[in-house]
Amino acid sequence: VQLQASGGGLVQVGGSLRLSCEASRRTRNNYAMGWFRQAPGKEREFVAAISYSGKDTFYADSVKGRFTISRDNAKNTAYLQMNNLTPEDAAVYLCATRSYYSGSYYSAEDFDSWGQGTLVTVSS
After folding, report:
1. What is the pLDDT of residues 8-64, one digit of tens each?
2. Which of 3, 32, 11 is closest to 82 using CA atoms?
């Protein structure tokens, strides 16, 4: 499956961005969709994930209350609404999907398709 991430850009502290991740494969085969991020010199970290139905969502503690993940299965697309951005949120944001039912929503090793990433820059 190919994943196309978009929506990144430059935003001021406290601003908002909405990321999109469109999958080429029908989302009934994308049981989980998630977002991870990687800042320069840092390891990839989990940001948020969502189940196929959208009823279950998972967030890193650092983004709870500020970020919201959602998905539109009719469009094969997941979204990440990011509000109240801080310089610590600056990173390349990567979207990922999992084609099988079981697995952790928090672990990158349990996602088997990855997009190319979209850059988020936060200026102070």
Report:
1. 999 999 999 999 999 986 655 778 999 999 999 999 999 999 999 999 999 999 999
2. 11
